[in-house]
Structure to design on (494 residues):
């Protein structure tokens, strides 16, 4: 009996050791391989320093998943909770999740602020929810035991007695923060934690969703009281922003392709299209995100074009003055606008020009695009004015026309007709340029596609859908503006 027990014990010990060996081999098998990571995360340090892998940077998980399937990268490293969630998501049966043991590497995550008083208050609150088991219960529900995203948010009533707490967060960071199935309510571990903190402080809460890359600059500039997301605490980050105590000790994992799996798409193009429409539009009425995002894109585009046209008239006035000082001011302005990338100008407008204001992000984006359109339209109109034969102006003046009357009757009509094609092209470029407004926490058409991709992990369909919508919108705008140009030209000919 003793011999039998020893054999059973030896067999049991062998299984444990073999399992541990296999698990160790799992993550060490990626040494020297190609590893996908999200920029700005501590995964870069793990990939380079622990695995010695070559890092390939991705802006979102869905693109990395598609490249894993195609064999372009060997794995994708991200939070272990996300790895497990993606691997278990319907349609991802060919993906495997590999755990990086906590003893190898883990990173504490914290909330951030630019206000020490907010940090102190949050740390007191955090100690309370840790002590009474609330935080552990949240971690089990949202992170440790998550199997799908249809988790109901608990009822957390807020009084608003002491004002409103502004919270910056990334609305596409599963499972810490994401939009619910209707696309209307934010939910997740970070969101519940923020609501409980607001309840503790007897405050209301305002969530400001944005891209992860914009989160730290947004909070550092003082636009939000607190930033709560999967933000790893690092010494480098602590130099520019204040961190709370750890809200979660983050463990990491690797998403990779299972071996011996048929990776071909079933049903060909028709099957892919049908599945794409079902997953990305019909399920949970995700088409509403696209409709809402399109509305924001069109509102920004048309408003910026109207205001930009008015602003261009003033700039054109400066450019056409004989006074050299006024003319140089106009040229300097146009030169500055042309010399800056649109994204950089948007960031300057947001973080510097309107840094201390409470103006809506949408109107800040409109202001930035108005500055750009004003310069482009003004230069286009000025060039059109220069093409008008000065002999016609002299003839009008010789028969008694005042200068302003000669300009409005002779120069301006001809200049407008010649400037209209350029005006049309400028508007189309404006519509396409609005795709960058997601960087300042605006949910436009492009951002809506990103949110859908974060839920479905479909790299292609949302992008192609958004591209098709932009193509349809710009084509309709081009045709309408062409009709306007033709009518103006016919009227002039008559």
């Amino acid at each position: 009996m003793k011999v039998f027990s020893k054999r059973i014990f030896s067999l049991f010990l062998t299984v444990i050791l073999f399992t541990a060996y296999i698990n160790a081999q799992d993550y060490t098998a990626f040494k020297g391989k190609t590893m996908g990571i999200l920029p700005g995360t501590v995964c870069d340090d793990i990939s380079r320093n622990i695995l010695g892998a070559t890092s390939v940077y991705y802006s979102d998980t869905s693109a990395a998943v598609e490249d894993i399937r195609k064999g372009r990268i060997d794995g994708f490293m991200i939070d272990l909770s996300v790895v497990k969630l993606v691997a278990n998501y319907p349609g991802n049966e060919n993906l495997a999740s590999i755990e990086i043991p906590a003893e190898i590497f883990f990173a504490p995550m914290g909330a951030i602020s630019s206000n020490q008083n907010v940090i102190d208050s949050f740390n007191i609150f955090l100690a309370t929810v840790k002590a009474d088991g609330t935080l552990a219960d949240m971690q089990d529900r949202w992170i440790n035991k998550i199997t799908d995203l249809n988790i109901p948010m608990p009822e957390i009533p807020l009084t608003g007695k002491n004002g409103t707490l502004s919270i910056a967060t990334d609305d596409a960071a599963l499972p810490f923060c994401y939009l619910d199935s209707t696309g209307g309510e934010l939910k997740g571990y970070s969101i519940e934690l923020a609501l409980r903190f607001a309840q503790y402080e007897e405050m209301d809460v305002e969530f400001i969703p944005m891209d992860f890359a914009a989160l730290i600059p947004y909070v550092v500039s003082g636009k939000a009281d607190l930033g709560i997301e999967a933000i790893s605490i690092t010494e480098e980050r602590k130099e520019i922003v204040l961190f709370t105590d750890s809200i979660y000790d983050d463990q990491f994992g690797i998403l990779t392709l299972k071996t011996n799996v048929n990776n071909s798409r079933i049903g060909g193009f028709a099957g892919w299209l049908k599945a794409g429409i079902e997953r990305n539009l019909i399920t949970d009425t995700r088409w509403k995100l696209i409709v809402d995002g399109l509305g924001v894109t069109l509102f920004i585009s048309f408003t910026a074009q109207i205001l930009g046209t008015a602003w261009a008239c003033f700039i054109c006035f400066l450019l056409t003055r004989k006074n050299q000082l006024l003319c140089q001011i106009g040229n300097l302005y146009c030169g500055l606008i042309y010399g800056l990338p649109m994204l950089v100008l948007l960031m300057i407008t947001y973080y510097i020009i309107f840094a201390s204001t409470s103006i809506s992000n949408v109107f800040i984006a409109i202001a930035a695009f108005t500055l750009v359109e004003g310069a482009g339209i003004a230069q286009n109109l000025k060039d059109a004015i220069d093409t008008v034969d000065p002999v016609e102006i002299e003839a009008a003046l010789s028969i008694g026309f005042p200068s302003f009357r000669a300009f409005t009757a002779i120069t301006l009509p001809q200049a407008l007709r010649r400037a209209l094609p350029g005006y049309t092209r400028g508007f189309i470029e404006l519509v396409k340029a609005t795709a960058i407004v997601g960087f300042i926490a605006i949910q436009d058409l492009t951002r809506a596609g990103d949110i859908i991709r974060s839920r479905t992990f479909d790299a292609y369909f949302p992008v192609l859908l958004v591209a098709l919508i932009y193509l349809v919108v710009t084509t309709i705008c081009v045709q309408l503006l062409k009709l306007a140009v033709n009518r103006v030209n016919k009227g002039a000919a008559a």
